[in-house]
Amino acid sequence: MDLAETWLGVPKLLAPEDMASTSADDLSNMTYLSGFLDCKVKEGAPVVYPNRAIARGPGVSGVGLLPGKPATFEIDASKCGAGDVVVTVDGPEGSDPVKVEYSATGDTPGIYTGSYHPKDEGEYVVNVTFCGVDVPKAPFTVKIYNDGPRNKVDPKKVKVEGPGLTGDDILPEENAWFKINYTEAGPAEPKVEIVGPDSQPISFNVEQDGKGEQYVSYKPPKFGMYNVAINFGGMPLPNSPYKVKISPKVDASKVKIAGLAQLGRIG
Q1: pTM (two decimals)
Q2: What are 53-66's pLDDT values in tens digits?
Q3: 94: buried, middle or exposed (CB in 10 Å: 19+, 13-18, 0-12)?
Q4: What's the Cα-to-Cα distance from 66 to each of 59, 122, 150, 184, 198, rounded to whole Å?
Q5: Are 69 and 99 in contact, with CB atoms under 8 Å apart?
Q6: Cβ of 97: how many Cβ atoms within 10 Å?
């Protein structure tokens, strides 16, 4: 209530103990709560957005992990406001407690990198919170096994789709995207490289869902042929590199037609 009065301008008409007991009638409660309907957050208020945090890396996806090897991860809370990131890991039933080490990178406020060392085979649960609230898709279930078909890499099982690989209906400066699903392809992560018509690398963004799928987007700066190469476990996908033809923009309003008058007099 004190915070609501300070940062939202909602008068403290009741005391917390009044609302927690039967001493305040319904009308008094409704009068106080109605103050929240049209309130606005004041500048400088300690507002946080845990839903904007992003957890990525093999430590939360489980891709490429083996017992005894470090499981690395990154937490991007740079757009969440002021608050603390907390990461804990629960190991398989009967296993020793899992030690997690992580810290801010120092390059960008709110970016954390860390790792843990899974010793045993089985399922690990990675808990990631911001200000005590689970970040999107947390907790993460990470399956770690020592050998067998679950740890074999097969680029043929990687599934890709999206206009960013075909060029369909994509014009210069427009968003081109594609998805990479590698949940059944083994312990590795995709590596993407995009080269433009002038043989210069093209920047792109990657969003990781933490469960074996990536969303890749880029904006082709001009028309021409682009090469999108996707490797998995050091091996190219069957159809990689993908040839993506970006067509030039067309402005019909600038098309000029001449000679129609002469054509009309024929015959």
Answers
A1: 0.50
A2: 999 988 998 777 88
A3: exposed
A4: 11, 10, 11, 16, 41
A5: no
A6: 9
